[in-house]
Amino acid sequence: MPELEAVDALAIDASVLINLLGCGAAEEILHALPQAVLIEQRALSEVLHDPSRRLPARDQRERLIERQLLQVRQLAGPGIERFLELVAAPHELDDGEAATIAWAIDLNAVAVLDERKARRIVRECYPDLSLASTAGLFRTLLEQGRMDGSRVRGLLLAALQQARMSVPSDEIDWVMGVLGVEVAEQCPSIRRHAIRRFARG
User: H-helix or E-strand containing 6?
Assistant: First the structure.
């Protein structure tokens, strides 16, 4: 994960915003992050439900935008060409993921993605693009002292249980260390083999 204090902007995918809504504290988290947090219009349009309230996400999305905690942008120019490459074969990413990657490249921002396929394509095709994840954002907030440990643990657990947050392999040991094995077993999005491996030490 990149040193997030050294970057100016985070380009988040739809799944990341869903995770933040799912933990019930999107405003608190976005306010605590020192970087500008941006989302491309195509990714924003995929955020339809608020998992924490089990209601449509529209009101919450608009609230974040009105409070200038989330900035919405739209691809243009070379970014459109890159987007079209990413949604076509052989990559075949969904529109939100492709737009997030293309926008992050244009902006020289960190691409915040959780889905395994999208992260693999970034590593293989755009190795100079910095990657982070929702779990990595929680980790940064804790390690930079922007939130205390008990708060981060509670929000992390809520994102896992309410939004079924996906955890990339390079963050799984940190997540397991924060939660512990017994709590991790209550989170369906954490792979069972990862829990067993961590438990064996």
Answer: none
